[in-house]
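User: Sorry, what's this?
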Amino acid sequence: MENLSWGVPGKTIVRDVTLAVEPGETVGLIGPNGSGKSSLLRCVAGLRTPTAGVVRYDGVEIASWPARERARRMAFVEQTADTDSDLRVSEVAMLGRTAHRSRWRGPDPADHEIVAAALQRLDLTALADRPWKQLSGGERQRTHLARALAQRTAGLLLDEPTNHLDVRHQLELMELVGGTPQTVVVALHDLALAARYCDRLVLMHGGTVVADGAAADVLTAPLLREVFDVEAEIGRDSLGHLAVGYREPVR
């Protein structure tokens, strides 16, 4: 991302963001609601056209790619995703294979193996034949994550992927994200999860980047006071992970 900006008439939402993500790196986007995290991800995914600046992937501007090419290189999971079709869980996950096959060819045995593996990684095998409309919010989120894994892309863009998930599945998902060889950019509200599983944190506020670096350098009491308007204490939990405690909102 180079000097990237995006907005709506009368309001700039992403402002002059320059950010490089290395191959295999997991970068966590953090910041309060309205800081521009989701809009930035949608620009990177090619779903929004920047009003200024460019997004490059391996040196190539993504604006030059057709949607099919983007889907072969990057998978994007939104905060909330829905469908009017009464697809089964396995059929939603199979949508991730669409860009990899001819429009006139149905799924082959290799596609089914890839989808089965993705469902297993997200603890969804038992729900493979469950209709979409019968799923809970967390099950729907995990199904769309399985679809993204089935795309087999080098890049993975996740917008609040732990939304609707219980604690167990939040931890399992973030272990998967932190351990994947894919290049990952993930927007998160949970600062403890971001600190534990991301290689690097990017703190956004007012549409721009205000801090970028290791969790211990970004999650500081002065920065959290400035960006989140809270008094915070930074320490370590019993497992040695960075922990953030909140005393009170700034008044």
Observations:
- The mean pLDDT is 91.
- The domain at 2-82+155-249 is CATH 3.40.50.300 (Rossmann fold).
- The longest strand covers residues 242-249.
